[in-house]
Design brief:
By secondary structure, this protein is α+β, with helices and mostly antiparallel strands. 20% of the residues lie in helices and 9% in strands.
C-alpha cells in the first residue's frame, strides 16, 4: 500500500495520537470510500469551531466512551470532515489546520488557497 499524500503533495503526517484521531483511528487523516464525511482536515480545534460544529449537530465536545471518543477541547488536534471545516470557514469560525497532516482528498471540497490561509 502506498503512503497517503497530504495537500502539499508530500507524505501525510500524523495529526494526533492523543487523542487518537482519524477515520481509522490511526492518528492520521486517512480516508476511503466508506468515509462519507471525508474526515481529512487536520484541525487545531478552537472553542469557536467546536461550538459551530455543535450548532450543526456535530457534538465533538461530549465524551462518547462507547465509541472510544474522549470528547475534545480547544487546542486538541482532530481529523474533521472537510465540509464541516469549509462551512465553519464560510461562517468566519474556521480553526487552524495543519497542511502536512491534511489528506489530499480534502482538496475535492476545499481550495488549497483557503487551507493555506488558515494553516498553522
Amino acid at each position: 500500500m502506498h503512503p497517503s499524500v497530504n495537500v502539499n503533495g508530500t507524505e501525510l503526517q500524523p495529526c494526533s495520537t492523543d487523542p487518537m484521531t482519524g477515520w481509522y483511528r490511526d492518528g492520521c487523516c486517512n480516508t476511503d470510500s466508506s468515509d462519507r464525511g471525508s474526515h481529512t482536515v487536520c484541525c487545531i480545534l478552537t472553542d469557536e469551531f467546536l461550538n459551530f460544529a455543535l450548532s450543526k449537530g456535530n457534538d465533538l465536545i461530549t465524551p462518547a466512551p462507547q465509541f472510544n471518543f474522549p470528547g475534545l477541547k480547544a487546542g486538541d488536534r482532530w481529523c474533521v470532515c472537510a465540509q464541516t471545516w469549509l462551512d465553519a470557514a464560510n461562517a468566519g469560525v474556521a480553526c487552524p489546520v495543519s497542511l502536512e497532516c491534511t489528506h489530499e482528498e480534502a482538496l475535492a471540497i476545499i481550495s488549497i488557497d483557503l487551507l493555506e490561509a488558515h494553516s498553522e
